[in-house]
């Protein structure tokens, strides 16, 4: 998962988002991806000349994503009865759904995007999945297909290609035969697909023909979604271990708590109504004592030049200097690029969020956390400090869910009180 981006050349330009606000941010990586990194040092001399041409189309062909085709009259029913997200009725279904397949214990097997059929073919559904997970997902689908009437097929890169457009990108010109849907995850752009002969090659040619800047790369997309706090794939969303709420699927519209039965429903509904989700996936930033993160910094800032060790997947996170019971795990590192990544974090320990009346135990000034792991034949212990951030969209969603849970609890108490009074009468 880790990528050595520090060795890549750094090119500066004005951020096309900040340009309209009269601000300047330093950005890097080939054609300057659309996310700000850090403020440049002020200087009255040798001021760099910045380009004022805002990009019309920021795109990337997602070579790490694969399409699975469902073609037939039973495709919609099959998907609706297997995943926790609502697929039926079609009139109320979003064009693109971020969801997951669960096992019988309510744990995530594989995350996926479900693309609604086009108007031309109402029976043709597409499932977008990670390429490395496609074979395992096909086995899972075939096991449950039974006598359902639809054709199931995994499409090769020559048959189908997936692409992504950054937020505020313009509509692609001359992109017939492609489907483009809004990514349902907050702060994300649009994702689409092209199905046809030599799909990947033809899609790249079509993008090259548009009036756009150089195409971005797979890692640019990875960094973009990590900065917004969105996990993908079996590395970040551990198969058969991760819970859908901990992976924030409940805030993407990936779970319907009112629909009928689906695989893994019992534990998912029980957690929603009776439990408190104390851990969630958050964006994090690595740092050292020589390069501290300011207390007033509210989001991770990506720096491709940061020379920091990359923790392995599932590395433990704990409070710095804590021992014994107080030194128990506060989270797990899930993966990252450079100095940023994603981690499964205990909210009341690593952030200022209060989930219950007890409140958060987090001290923003004094509390520090570190990722620790053993490396090499000598099992040398390595560690690097880490700070978790709660994106505004996630903070708002969590606070909304706490309020809704409180209202449900009050409603149950009022109902119980009314029933007790009726029994006394």
* Largest sheet entry: 6 strands, antiparallel, barrel
Spans of at least 5 consecutive residues with low confidence: 1-32, 35-55
Report the count of strand segments: 15
Rg, please?
Answer: 23 Å
The CATH fourth-level homologous superfamily of the largest domain: Probable tRNA modification gtpase trme, domain 1
CATH architecture of the largest domain: 2-Layer Sandwich
Q: What characteristic shape results from the CA principal axes?
A: globular
Lateral strand order in the biggest sheet: 10-13-12-11-14-15
CATH class of the largest domain: Alpha Beta
Say what the CATH topology of the largest domain is. Answer: Gyrase A, domain 2
- Please work out how many helical segments DSSP would assign: 9
What is the subunit organization of this protein? single chain
Give me the secondary-structure category: alpha+beta
Mean pLDDT: 83
Secondary-structure element order, N to C:
HEEHEEEHEEEEHHHHEEEEHEEH
What is the fold's blueprint, element by element?
Elements: H1 16-19, E1 59-61, E2 65-71, H2 75-82, E3 96-102, E4 108-115, E5 124-130, H3 134-145, E6 151-154, E7 160-165, E8 178-182, E9 190-195, H4 199-209, H5 218-227, H6 233-236, H7 265-274, E10 279-287, E11 316-319, E12 331-337, E13 340-346, H8 347-350, E14 369-375, E15 380-388, H9 392-424
How is this structure best described in words?
The chain has 425 residues and is α+β, with helices and mostly antiparallel strands. It folds into four domains: 1-54, no CATH class; 59-225, Gyrase A, domain 2, CATH 3.30.1360; 276-390, no CATH class; 395-425. 23% of the residues lie in helices and 23% in strands. The protein has helices spanning 16-19, 75-82, 134-145, 199-209, 218-227, 233-236, 265-274, 347-350, 392-424, and strands at 59-61, 65-71, 96-102, 108-115, 124-130, 151-154, 160-165, 178-182, 190-195, 279-287, 316-319, 331-337, 340-346, 369-375, 380-388. The chain has a six-stranded antiparallel barrel with strand order 10-13-12-11-14-15. The model is unreliable at 1-32 and 35-55 (pLDDT under 50).
């Amino acid at each position: 998962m880790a990528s050595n981006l520090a060795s890549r050349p750094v090119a500066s330009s004005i951020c096309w988002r900040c340009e309209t606000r009269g601000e300047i941010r330093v950005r890097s990586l080939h054609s300057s991806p659309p996310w700000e990194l850090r403020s440049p040092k002020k200087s009255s001399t040798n001021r760099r000349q910045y380009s004022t041409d805002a990009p019309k189309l920021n795109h990337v062909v997602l070579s790490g994503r694969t399409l699975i085709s469902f073609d037939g009259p039973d495709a919609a029913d099959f998907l609706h009865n297997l995943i926790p997200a609502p697929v039926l009725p079609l009139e109320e279904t979003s064009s693109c759904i971020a969801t997951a397949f669960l096992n019988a214990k309510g744990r995530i097997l594989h995350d996926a995007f479900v693309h609604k059929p086009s108007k031309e073919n109402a029976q043709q559904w597409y499932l977008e999945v990670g390429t490395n997970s496609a074979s395992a997902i096909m086995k899972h689908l075939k096991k449950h297909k039974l006598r359902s009437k639809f054709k199931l097929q995994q499409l090769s890169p020559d048959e189908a290609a997936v692409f992504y457009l950054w937020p505020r990108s313009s509509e692609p010109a001359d992109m017939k035969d492609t489907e483009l849907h809004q990514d349902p995850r907050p702060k994300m752009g649009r994702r689409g697909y092209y199905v046809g002969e030599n799909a990947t090659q033809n899609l790249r040619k079509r993008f090259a023909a548009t009036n756009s800047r150089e195409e971005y790369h797979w890692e640019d997309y990875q960094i973009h979604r990590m900065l917004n706090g969105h996990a993908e794939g079996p590395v970040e969303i551990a198969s058969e271990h991760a819970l859908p709420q901990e992976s924030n699927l409940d805030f993407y519209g990936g779970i319907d708590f009112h629909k009928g039965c689906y695989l893994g429903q019992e534990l998912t509904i029980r957690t929603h109504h009776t439990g408190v989700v104390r851990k969630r996936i958050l964006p994090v930033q690595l740092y050292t004592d020589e390069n501290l993160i300011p207390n007033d910094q509210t989001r991770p800032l990506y720096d491709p030049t940061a020379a920091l060790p990359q923790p392995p997947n599932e590395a433990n996170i704990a409070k710095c200097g804590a021992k014994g019971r107080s030194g128990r795990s506060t989270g797990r590192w899930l993966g990252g690029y450079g100095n940023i990544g994603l981690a499964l974090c205990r909210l009341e320990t690593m952030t200022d969020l209060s989930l219950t009346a007890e409140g958060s135990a987090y001290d923003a000034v004094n509390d520090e956390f570190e990722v620790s792991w053993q490396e090499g034949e000598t099992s040398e212990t390595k560690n690097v400090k880490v700070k978790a951030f709660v994106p505004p969209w996630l903070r708002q969603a969590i606070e909304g869910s706490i309020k809704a849970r409180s209202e449900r609890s009050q409603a149950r108490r009022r109902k119980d009180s009314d029933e007790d009074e009726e029994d006394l009468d």
